[in-house]
Amino acid sequence: MEDKFQSAYQEEQExxxxxxxxxxxQLEKLRNTPVYTGHEYTEQVLEASREQRRNNLSKLRTEPYxxxxxxxxxxxxxRKPLYIGKIGADREQASDRPLVIDWRAPVASLFYSFTGxxxxxxxxxxxxxxxxxxxxxxxxxxxxxxxERVADTYDRESxxxxxxxxxxxxxLGENKDNRLRDIVSTIQEEQDRIIRAAKNxxxxxxxxxxxxxxTVALHRLAFLLYQYKEQVSAERMIIFAPNRMFLDYISDVxxxxxxGNIQQSTFADWAAELLGLELTDTGVMETLNRWxxxxxxxxxxxxxxxxxxxxxTKLIGVIEEAVSLLESGAVxxxxxxxxxxxxxxxRMIMRWYKExxxxxxxxxxxxxxxxxxxxxxxxxxxxxxSAAALKDRKKKGAQREKAYxxxxxxxxxxxxxxxIFRAVKPPADxxxxxxxxxPAAVMKSxxxxxxxxxxxxxxLPPLLYIHYLLNGDxxxxxxxxxxxxEAQDFSPFQIAVLDLYARNHSxxxxxxxxxGIHAYKGVHEWREMQELFxxxxxxxxxxxxxxxxxxxxxxxANGILRGGVKSDLLAVPVFRSGNPVRLLKYGASRTEDISAxxxxxxxxxxxxxxxxxxxxADAEALFAELSVRFEDVHLIDGSMTEYQGGLSVLPLxxxxxxxxxxxxxxxxxxxxxxxAAWDAKxxxxxxxxxxxxxxxxxxxxxxxxxxxxxxxxxxxEGWQVK
Length: 722
Prior knowledge:
- The strands form five sheets. A seven-stranded parallel sheet has the order 19-20-18-21-22-17-23, with helices on both faces.
- It is built from 25 helices and 23 strands.
- The protein starts with a helix and ends in a 5-residue tail after the last strand.
- With 722 residues, it is α/β, with parallel strands linked by helices.
- The chain is globular.
- Helix 14 packs antiparallel against helix 15 and helix 21 packs antiparallel against helix 24.
- The protein has five domains: 163 residues, no CATH class; 154 residues, P-loop containing nucleotide triphosphate hydrolases (Rossmann fold, 3-Layer(aba) Sandwich); 82 residues, no CATH class; 77 residues, no CATH class; 144 residues, P-loop containing nucleotide triphosphate hydrolases (Rossmann fold, 3-Layer(aba) Sandwich), CATH 3.40.50.300.
């Protein structure tokens, strides 16, 4: 066995040397080729191609590939070793085998989909299905041009097991830094199916904590750009993330995959820019404070909770009726007369408005009609009998044209929204009564905050819908593909509005209902989103394997879901074992104990360690105490745009999407978490942030589901550290 490994290692070392030599030679030749700066189009295209190759080869020269697949097409003839990397590269001399095959190429799908066995394997090429035999599937780790590891996960000619997770476990066991990394060398079969799914579909992905949802979505963007390069562009793709810090956390993945220029934003930032609004963090913090900062006093959640109601699609009919009323009464009463003796009959203006410009949305229709009136005025001015009359008529005409335009409705989304909620006086021809479809409590609270000048996050979808009804999508970029992360916290109305700006319903919508701690605004079932699309335009996928945490952590977190949430959306852990989850009861000093736990974990070979608290107030107080004892500790309070790694203190509800080598959950007891499913979801989110080690500190009085989870998973108690 040892001899076979040595032989494989030597073989791969020789191949690596040859590949690096080829890459260096090509790169040197390109760098010595003068850069074309002229204006001839053909040469510009050639120079762009050369520059792309320079960039690709520069990346390849440190880590050219990560996998090898020996494939015999048709089950006969030559077995070809295919080397797969993040970026493809051809040999300088013509060959039937590229130097490196791009991981997104059709044949490379075999590297991810093949799970062993002696039966023929197949992949879908542009020319149809290609079938053949896989003889070898090998993972290699190359860092800075050095071959570090060789691992065969399948060998047809070996007596060993068909497929092994040994390489996957090795990669998962590596410690984290302060950025999400690509998984291109360890993509699993179920993840690959999602990555390579058809473009014109709204994919809804339920993925357990640590299943790689975010990374899969980012790899899917890279795949779509490769597969549909003539139909889509990076500039017309967008990723919606829960907050700006999370955008920073994922910012390295796409560049590592050789993809740039994809837009990244929060929904609030994108919507505010489109609407021309300036949002403050005041409303966001007020909402978070109301739902998270009062321990054990979560507001009652119903379908008429303002955030939940306004996030449903129930407002659509109300908005359409309001815009329709404005539209029907838009043309001012009476004929238009720019000066004495000149009259444009209202019936003519109505004909323009209702017939000639009927296909345009209201705001655009008003623009066209007013432009037509302006042209009519100019034609009438030509009939002026003298220069003096012309001058007088020009002045009067401009004044009366402006006054006439002012009589039209104000096609401003915020004004119309305020009129709907009676925060300002509605037009005279609107019904005097408030809309019956809006619950009284929603009406009252929304009117109050609008009168104070507050636009909250849940107001953005209805405002965007009003904007769309008024203006259509003219002048607004349509997206080739939209990724929505943490989608369980998105409302159906948000998705419905985004679909207006998406080509062919092309979405990747991913989340985890078990982490739905923002249930006051998000969905409770994926059906709420699926129903927004025709059945042929959507598909549902479930990712149940968790690659983030050890088996001990996953078993403990599953216990919380079973006992506290009564959920069957449980994670299946990859076989990666670690230390047991540790439950520690406070002694004489809570601060001393948390400090001791942090000191112990930070003394190990961990790059990221977090202390998770129940509230932001708890995090701020604890940070003040810990910053005296530790030199490099950071407070994450929701205002940050960059995750710095190292030691962090943050409220648990701000930790979603992040992951840490080790996590300490402070106050994991009844003083902070009750018996409700919502409390259990909070703790589930916190526990599943940890990759390698999880400690929970408590006062001895814990929720029943936590006690049961500890018993079922054989969690350790006490301060004895192995």
